Amino acid sequence: MKADAIKIVDGVYWVGVIDWDIRDYHGYNLDGTTYNTYLIFSEDKVTLIDNVFPGFFPQSWGRIEDAFKKEGKNEVKIDVVIQNHVENDHSGTLIDIIKKFPEVEVYCSTRAVNGLKNYFPSLKDFNFNLVKTGDSIEVGGKTFSFIDAPMLHWPDSMFTFLNDDGILFSNDAFGQHLCRSSRLDTDIDEFEILHAAQKFYANLITPSSKMVLMKVDELNKLCLTDKIKLIAPSHGQIWTNPEKIISKYSSWASGEVKDKITFIYDTMHHSTQKMAHALAEGVMSEGFEVRTYFLHYDQRSDAATDVLDSKAVVIGSPTMMNNPFPSLGDIIYYFNCLNFKATGYTKKAVVIGSKGWGGGAGKKLATDLEASGFEIFENYDILNIPHKDELDKCYEIGKELAKSLK
């Protein structure tokens, strides 16, 4: 397959893959993504940083061949592979590279070895080179330094820093699930890339927020922050202004929030929906931003994006057989996985809903929200349909919630 490599700086090329058609990845809804890999030419050696999802090798290989042509080299030969992470959207074609170049040297973290051998049983006897923070290698006159990055977002993750060009290859950290034909952050709208980065953080990095702060501090102590000229993640656009995304990660990891409340609800006969709308009016009356997610149509990973920098959530569910409506159960379990309390900020929660007889949804949702790190501000349910007095009370609950957060 013919495909063009994209030059990042002299001797460094993007040779990754554009996945135009993927719409869901481990519960994260997306409109396509990229699997970024990078080829680095030095005096007499060539290094490949990471690999791509299984089945996409022809596209990546086409770009690799094109990069060699652009460098004026007739023979394609890869001497070193640096595998920053084992998950198969980053390592899926490692086996293809090793088959083509049996003598290639592969570098990875100590925690990555077993994972790579599990993914590729034929490599059980392969001699991986293990590296850790403080280690570096020289390849054809260029120096690569390694920084362990556990839980950003897997235990085996690491960063690779190309000292000569100031490029931090950060794997999942600082990524975005964006599928664009251009490669730099400056090639697309700033709001678009920052929103995509926030969605990526909210849904994948939030549980590791303490590790984010520690890693930023470590980069400072290693005197790398000022040396980083580009951040090249494994998904999405390359950051030409590293401070922009590093400061955002520090903000999200520190629990910095806006005067914003995110509403997440579903409904059977529109009663819970009407309650949510009335409560939203009360919130807005105090100048707070409202974001709503109607789970008949909206996706949990989009809702999580706004929850990240919200001061509170409003969860609305009708009772179904003494339990929450299934779509609400799904998202509460998801929030438990994301562990928003890891940012150090405790978000408040209001639970609302309607019932046909005994109820039960509100109590269970409140219990589960508390277990997920939220502080319950109010739990209010009504019988059958909301009347004027009940809608007025919803308005007042919203107003008081916003006041309590000022």
TrEMBL record:
Its EC number is 1.-.-.-. Transmembrane segments: none annotated. Gene3D superfamilies: 3.40.50.360, Ribonuclease Z/Hydroxyacylglutathione hydrolase-like. It holds the Pfam family ODP. GO terms for molecular function: electron transfer activity; FMN binding; metal ion binding; oxidoreductase activity. Keywords: Oxidoreductase. It comes from the Archaea. Residues 261-402 form the Flavodoxin-like domain. InterPro entries: Flavodoxin/NO_synth, Flavoprotein-like_sf, Metallo-B-lactamas, ODP_dom, RibonucZ/Hydroxyglut_hydro, Rubredoxin-O_OxRdtase. This is Nitric oxide reductase. It comes from Methanobrevibacter curvatus. The gene is fprA_1.
